[in-house]
Amino acid sequence: MLNYFEMAASQIGTIFRVPRENPELMEAKLAAFTRQVPIMYALVVVNTTALAITFYGTAPHLLTMYLPAAFVAICMIRMLSWLRARNITLSLNQAVEKLTGSIIFAGILGVAFSAWSLSLFPYGDAYSKSHVAFFMAVTSIGCSFCLMHLRSAALIVTTLVVVPFAFFFGSSDNTVFTSIAFNFVVVIFAVLFMLLGNYSDFEKRVNSEKALRIKQAELQVLSDRNFRNSNIDSLTGLPNRRNFFAELERGIVNTAHTGGLLLGILDLDGFKPINDIHGHRMGDRLLVEVADRLRAHLAPHVFLGRLGGDEFVMFSEQLLDPDAIAEAEESIENLFDVPFEIDDITVRISCSIGYADFPDAAKTAQDLFERADYALFFAKQHKRGKAVRFSAEHEAEIREASSVSRALAGANLEQELWIAYQPIIDAETRQPASFEALARWKSPELGNVPPMSFIVAAERSDMIGQLTPLLLRKALEGAATWPEHIRISFNLSAVDVASPLSILKIIAVVQQSKVKASRIDFEITETAVMGNLVQATEALNALKTLGARISLDDFGTGYSSLSCIRELPLDKVKIDRSFISKIETDSAARLILRTMLGLCSGLGHDCIVEGVENSEQVDFLRREHCRFMQGYFFAKPMNIEQVGGYLASAQSSMLVGRTAG
Ligand code: C2E
Ligand code: MG
Ligand code: MG
Questions:
Q1: Beta strands 487-491 and 431-443: pairing type?
Q2: Phi, psi at residue 582, to the nearest 5°?
Q3: Which long-range contacts (CB under 8 A, 24 or more apart) does 524-527 make?
Q4: Which of 128, 261, 279, 446 stands the most exposed, by the fewest C-beta atoms within 10 Å?
Q5: What angle do CA 540, 546, 547 make, to 5 degrees?
Q6: Among 30-34, 267-271, 347-351, whose mean pLDDT is lowest?
Q7: Does residue 451 have its Cβ closer than 6 Å to ligand 1?
Q8: What pLDDT does 10 receive?
């Protein structure tokens, strides 16, 4: 029983309490209340004045003038305070205070008006008495409607009017008033029932709006996370490729105000060997350190992002003058002078940068990126560790490359491609030991196109998959006519080595030719294998299983020559011609060449020195016990007809002995 009362009391308590734990509901109540409560006071003022006028002259002045005047004044003050509250944002506590104050005031108002109107009753005739009943009923119903968003206030007002009304008029001798009391009670119950229903709809709506807002906030968090994941590089925390392109587009649009934009692509030199030797974890940490160093160094207005791998990108929307650019280049280069310390391992790397400016170098974001990338490619090839600005010469090269690509796509490859052969001399026998097959293209449109141009164009357009088997077939057709002991060297491109399908095609060509695989040397360059060392090793092993041998071409020009020579299944190494060309004047070059020769013999690899152009170089190499040489001193590349004559004359005139003593 006690429990039942406690429950009922708590239910009633809930009805009369302002819901502090549901701030959204309270806020909504306050908003609706603030809108409606001034109307209530206006209604009370008008009704009070009307009732006071009805009784003016018949009832004492206290009841018809002073009390109504006081009521009207209080109601006006409350009305103005609520009208002012419309423009003020209240804190939770202030709002609770204001609503609680309204509940108390509603109680006082109910008692005061009931007492006042009933005290007028004895002074009136039948009409004015009816006005009292009408005043109480109509005013309390009107107030209930205006107070409906503050359920407790509405209930208090109606209860404090309805109870005295029912007793007063219900106990009257006049049957009209008894009926009015009955009617009023019935109506007020119906009104309260409707209001409470309405209130709970209002509460539900506010709560569902709240739930919707929570859902929207959760969605916002998820979409923010999603945006972050798809725009931020998870390793370094820098903006990623997608973010960079979006920002670059925006930056380009902004150039209408800024005047221009400078874009730089930065690529680490020597990152891949570190990754291969020390593992990916170490590589990742190095990338994070590089990102941190760059971020700390660059001015806040410079956008810094990671494109992927060891490539970073940066752009500034402030145009820099040439001196400032040179200073920026130097300061970034200096950043890499300090070695990186990771897990007690000291790592030294440098970076190459290609940069281009908008609108001078390009007119769109994509073109600007391609131009900066071209400058980077140039830096990597010719100025490793330095910054290269995209220039007019680069523009001409790009134009030429695209005309080469176009002509190659429409070329009759079978007819227009041919093979030149350049001998490789064995210093021991003083006879040609082998010929290197060098691709030649005589285009009806462009004339003789150097292999460096059309091979690169074919690599870019994926035509290399067609070109290599065709060139190899032609090269082997020529070699098939030579004596068995003369070998043939054939250059493979990076794309060939990276594609298992290309390797299968190459094997098929070898198997269909009249030249034994054991007579073939495949030349690969370091850049061809470093992209994917595992796939390259598999490809080279497949060729070795066939019986062919593998030579590392242009040794010493790359950044990872030493890791290549250690990890790849090599038979020979060809030392790049840049080393021999300097030996007459540069003692360091002599020392380097000597060391390279020693390294090759130490690893058990045959060594070929490329680009031998004079007898002094031959003498030096012979003193250093270098066995194989290639270069214009012995012969320039020749066509297949010339090879026959060359071989015949070589046999009769001990080539090396005659020319180099
Ligand atoms: P490489 O394989 O290093 O070929 C040697 C290049 O040096 C040849 O240029 C050759 O003519 C040149 N050379 C030889 N001796 C001397 C010398 O004493 N002095 C000077 N200054 N140069 C000398 P080439 O024929 O223009 O070939 C350039 C490059 O094109 C080759 O370099 C090779 O990487 C590539 N290449 C040529 N043919 C093919 C091919 O069939 N397939 C592929 N993938 N690449 C090829
Ligand atoms: Mg070669
Ligand atoms: Mg070479």
A1: parallel
A2: -105, -5
A3: 524/492, 524/497, 524/550, 524/551, 524/552, 524/553, 525/494, 525/552, 525/553, 525/554, 525/558, 526/552, 526/554, 526/555, 526/557, 526/558, 526/559, 526/560, 526/561, 526/564, 527/494, 527/558
A4: 279
A5: 95
A6: 30-34
A7: yes
A8: 58
CA distance 647 to 300: 67
Point out which residues pair with 11 in neighbouring strands: none
Which pTM does this prediction carry? 0.59
Q: What is the DSSP string of 122-138?
A: GGS-HHHHHHHHHHHHH
Q: Give the residue, by CA position, lying nearest to ligand 1 atom 17.
A: 611
- Report the distance separating Cα 186 and Cα 163, nearest Å: 12
What is the pLDDT averaged over residues 363-380? 93
Q: Residue 17, Cβ neighbours under 10 Å: how many?
A: 16
> Nearest 5°: phi and psi at 293?
-65, -45
Question: Can you tell me which atom of ligand 1 is nearest the CA of 610?
Answer: 15
pLDDT digits (tens, 9 = 90+) for 518-532: 999 999 998 778 767
Sorted by sequence, the CB contacts under 8 Å of residue 566 that are 6+ apart come out as: none
The count of C-alpha atoms lying within 13 angstroms of the C-alpha of 7, restricted to the half-sphere facing its C-beta, is 4
393, amino acid identity: E
Is the pLDDT higher at 319 or at 363? 363
User: Could you give the 3-state DSSP secondary structure of residue 281?
Assistant: helix
Residue nearest to atom 27 of ligand 1 (CA): 451
Contact between 373 and 362 (Cβ < 8 Å):
no
Nearest alpha carbon, ligand 1 atom 20: 611
